[in-house]
Amino acid sequence: MSDKVSTDQYGRKTWDVEAYAEEARRGKSKKDAPSDKAVELVKNLNGQNYLDHRAYLLDESVLAVGKHTLISADSNTSSTFGKNKRFGFFCPVCDLSFRDTLALVDHFNSAQHQLGTPDLGEDVGEVKRASAEEVAKTIENLVQQLLRAQAVKGADSLQVRIVKRQEFEAKKLAARKERRKRQKTKKNVRENAEDEVNSEMAAMMDSMGLEALSLGMD
């Protein structure tokens, strides 16, 4: 401290403002710097996809429930405490704490956390602004998919069409046989009626012939 505080000729103390400002900047930089654990964690997470990354952090947070961490007042730095690590669930990447898992998951899905893990193996699912051409192409693809789905739903397979054709031919053949049977029955009835009429006429003629013969003999 002696190099930052001096005494003038009148015995008044003066402070080196620039030295104190530089010390404050170094202290703030040291406190805000990510912990070694956070750096190692981000390094290990590189190459993972977003879902595996989030699941790993959630498991770590849930497994930490019920555990106690002793914090030394002399070493209250980011590596042991965290600028916002007070209670609840902790994100070691961003050095933040949350009181429940819902807030923790919201943080994992936020842009703040994604900025802390820029080297994940795949897209983390951020919303991308689409152009008018992309929107039109997407709509056209959806319409084509809908038309294909309706066509497949309304069309019968080849096997189904064969079975339906066989059933149609069988019904057609049965109807033809039934029609021929009715026609044959009508024909037989008509022929039988004609035979009966002829028999009656023959019987009447025979009867008339016998009567004429008997009259002639008389």
UniProtKB/TrEMBL annotation:
A Pfam family annotated for this UniProt entry: zf-C2H2_jaz
Comp. bias regions, Basic residues: 177-187
Keywords (A to Z) from UniProt: Metal-binding, Nucleus, Zinc, Zinc-finger
UniProt-recorded name of the protein: CIC11C00000003212
Cellular component, GO, one term: U4/U6 x U5 tri-snRNP complex
KW Nucleus (keyword) present: yes
Organism taxonomic ancestry: Eukaryota, Fungi, Dikarya, Ascomycota, Saccharomycotina
Ranges for domain C2H2-type: 91-113
Stretch list, region Disordered: 175-196
Family annotation (InterPro entries): Snu23, Znf_C2H2_jaz, Znf_C2H2_sf, Znf_C2H2_type
UniProt-listed PROSITE patterns: ZINC_FINGER_C2H2_1 (PS00028)
GO molecular function: zinc ion binding
A biological process term (GO) from this entry: mRNA splicing, via spliceosome
